[in-house]
């Protein structure tokens, strides 16, 4: 086996409830992750040293040095091997960069699964999830996929049953937003209002909508505590959200820390219509359709990666 390719999904947060700032600089979350059908592909090839090459959309905006999350993940995995191992990684990007859709986390998850197969380490799913959590709060979910609620800083996952497929349109923005900057703005906005955030709670109504496959109900229950901060940092997002709502979206939300905006719609043809309408407007750089939930990177492991040559 000379090369392994793994497909990894983007995510949108259906509920992102942010608690108070912790002493370690993170926030306790109730984070309902939903994996959607926008994928990066990570290929690992055996090599004498670690390197990464990024190709595809916005490739020039992804770090290709030691800050690259996929390389960090591959190195962390290599430290668990009983012999020297390394890999040349190629990341084919489709997930927006710094877009609030966990593209970097997805690439780290893809690198873990690809290298685990390439180096024949046979590390179990629990070990990969542990390494993933050390790389970033959203990396375990990119392995896990489907729909899941993340607690702690988002890394402690429990699968959420869903009763069907949901259709989405994502309005992609020019340039990204920094996740730490969005969290910090959220804290400052709360402070200025004298607000003391309560411990985050799972939304029962959102869970019921997911279980029932009820897109109307889900649209009404989408909530993102980071949205106000993302819009404060990028005021044009208010018009983007309005544009989707005015064109009949069942729900409109900033994805994670933004600036991508997610619109839930009633079906595939509605998604095509909305994506076409948004693409022709001035409120976003591009609009793409997707559906969820989809499988995470781990679905490709255990001898069935997307491509082995
Ligand atoms: O875990 P990760 O490195 O992806 O987090 C990036 C940044 O997002 C953190 O440094 C922190 O500022 C913010 N964050 C947070 N609370 C979380 C997750 C992330 O404040 N639960």
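Sequence proposed for the structure above (309 residues):
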């Amino acid at each position: 086996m000379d090369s392994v390719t793994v497909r990894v999904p983007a995510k949108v947060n259906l509920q992102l409830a942010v608690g108070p700032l912790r002493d370690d600089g993170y926030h306790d979350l109730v984070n309902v992750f939903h994996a959607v059908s926008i994928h990066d592909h990570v290929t690992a090839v055996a090599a004498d040293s670690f390197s990464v090459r990024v190709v595809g959309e916005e490739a020039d905006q992804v770090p290709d040095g030691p800050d690259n999350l996929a390389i960090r993940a591959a190195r962390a995995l290599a430290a668990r091997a009983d012999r020297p191992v390394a890999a040349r990684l190629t990341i084919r990007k489709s997930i927006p960069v710094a877009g609030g859709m966990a593209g970097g986390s997805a690439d780290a998850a893809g690198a873990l699964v690809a290298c685990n197969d390439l180096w024949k380490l046979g590390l179990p799913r629990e070990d990969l999830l542990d390494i993933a959590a050390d790389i970033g709060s959203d990396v375990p979910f990119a392995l896990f996929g489907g729909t899941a609620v993340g607690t702690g800083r988002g890394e402690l996952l429990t699968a959420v049953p869903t009763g069907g497929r949901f259709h989405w349109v994502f309005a992609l923005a020019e340039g990204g937003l920094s996740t730490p900057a969005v969290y910090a703005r959220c804290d400052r906005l709360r402070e200025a209002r004298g607000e003391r955030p309560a411990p985050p709670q799972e939304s029962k109504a959102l869970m019921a909508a997911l279980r029932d496959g009820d897109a109307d109900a889900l649209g009404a229950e989408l909530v993102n505590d980071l949205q106000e901060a993302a819009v404060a940092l990028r005021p044009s997002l208010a018009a983007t959200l309005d544009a989707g709502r005015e064109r009949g979206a069942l729900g409109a939300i900033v994805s994670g820390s933004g600036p991508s905006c997610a619109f839930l719609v009633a079906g595939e043809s509605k998604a095509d219509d909305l994506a076409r309408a948004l693409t022709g407007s001035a409120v976003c750089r591009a609009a793409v359709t997707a559906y969820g939930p989809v499988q995470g990177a781990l679905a490709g492991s255990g001898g069935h990666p997307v491509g082995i040559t």
